Amino acid sequence: MKFGCCAAIDKAEVLYKAGYDFIECTVVSLMPEESEGVFKNILKQYKDSPIPIEACNILLPSDLKIVGENVNNQRVESYLSTALERVHRIGADTIVFGSGGARSLPEGFPIEKGEEQIAAFLSKATDIAEQFNLTIVIEPLNKKESNVINSVPEAVEWTKKLNRKSLKALADFYHMEEENEPLTNLYEHKDFISHIHVADSNRFSPGTGTYPYSEFASYIQKANYDGRISIECNWRNFEEEIGHSLDYLKQQFSSL
Question: Which domains does the chain have, with CATH numbers?
Answer without folding.
Answer: 2-252 (3.20.20.150)
